[in-house]
Design a protein that fits this description.
The chain has 96 residues and is mostly helical. The chain has 5 helices and no strands. It has a single domain, classed as lambda repressor-like DNA-binding domains (434 Repressor (Amino-terminal Domain), Orthogonal Bundle).
Length: 96
């Protein structure tokens, strides 16, 4: 088993712990203040009651300068590429 095998399992705790360590913060309360979210948000993420939102990932990126690829790896995202389906894209016809 290689060292990255543990990164193949979704684990929001690994992400939050890595961010807290990188920012040298003592606890989740300090992490919540730094990321400008309420502490219950981090608790819900840790207990897998809510997913890590795209806006939170962007905020983490801004604070840590971790690449999006690194954040996805820490989170356990196994997809090779992120694809947006047609359901999320709204294209309005051009008026001529």
């Amino acid at each position: 088993m290689d060292d990255n095998s543990s990164y193949r399992v979704y684990d929001p705790n690994r992400l939050l712990d890595s961010v807290r360590d990188a920012l040298q913060l003592a606890n989740d309360a300090a992490l919540a203040r730094t990321l400008q979210v309420r502490p219950p948000v981090l608790s819900k993420i840790r207990h897998r009651r809510t997913p890590v939102s795209a806006s939170l990932l962007i905020r983490i990126h801004e604070e840590t300068n971790f690449s999006i690829a690194k954040l996805r790896e820490l989170l356990g995202d196994r997809r090779q590429k992120f694809r947006v389906t047609d359901a999320y894209i709204k294209i309005s016809p051009l008026d001529n």
